[in-house]
Design brief:
Low-confidence stretches: none
Number of helices: 6
Order of helices and strands: EHEHEHEHEEHH
Strand content: 15-25%
CATH architecture: 3-Layer(aba) Sandwich
Number of domains: 1
Radius of gyration: 16 Å
Structural class: alpha/beta
Number of strands: 6
Helix content: 25-40%
Largest sheet: 6 strands, parallel
CATH superfamily: Flavodoxin domain
Mean pLDDT: 94
Distance between the termini: 21 Å
Shape: globular
Length: 201
């Protein structure tokens, strides 16, 4: 039986100078593109310079009627996806304000879609991911159990490399006691996205 086609967006959750996040984001993007019937789009928040949310009505209540032109375009872009992978650093036990703002700008467009997280930094970005899980649940998204926490040895091996990074430098994510964490992560996200889409949610 033919598998349900899906669109997955990989969101680069940092816009700072000399950011690291585009390196794992591009790796995840390239690996996910190898899957059949999966259209993958790399979303760079540098290309979406949204103002801090200042609409007069909350996205929960505005029924998609955004007054900001870029906000309208962002809502349309978010709506195109069947699932999301958010790649984020950990800043001060949390995640970047630019990512929170991008999440806050829309509501219905996120609803009933799975989200997975890739992070790095102190504690492998675990605290940033825990905060993101709470936020996406409030947006009526479904965070998957698995996450990809970049170990220090991968971060150090990759940090001075140019994009795209040699995928061999990420091989620790696919080996070791816990097995292939990337494949597990993809399987959870894709299966949940296909289940939801098939249900017509």
């Amino acid at each position: 039986m033919e598998k349900t086609p899906l669109t997955i967006q990989v969101i680069i959750g940092s816009t700072r100078q000399n950011r690291f996040s585009e390196k794992p984001a591009r790796y995840i993007f390239d690996e996910l593109r190898k899957k059949e019937n999966i259209h993958v789009e790399l979303i760079d928040l540098r290309d979406w310079p949204l103002p801090f949310f200042d609409e007069p009505i909350s996205p929960v209540s505005n029924k998609g009627n955004y007054s900001n032109d870029l906000g309208k375009k962002w809502a349309s872009k978010v709506a195109e996806a069947d699932g999301y992978i958010m790649v984020t650093p950990e800043y001060s036990h949390g995640y970047p304000a630019v990512l929170k703002n991008a999440l806050d700008w829309v509501f219905a467009e996120w609803n009933n879609k799975p989200a997975g997280f890739v992070s790095y930094g102190n504690a492998g970005g675990a605290r940033a991911i825990e905060q993101l899980r709470q936020v996406v649940i409030e947006l009526q998204m479904l965070p998957i159990r698995s996450a990809i926490h970049l170990p220090v040895e991968v971060y150090l091996a990759v940090r001075n490399e140019n994009v795209p990074v040699n995928p061999e430098l990420f091989k620790a994510l696919r080996e070791g006691v816990r097995g292939d964490r990337v494949e597990t992560f993809f399987k959870e996200l894709i299966n949940l996205a296909r289940t939801i889409k098939a249900a017509g949610k």
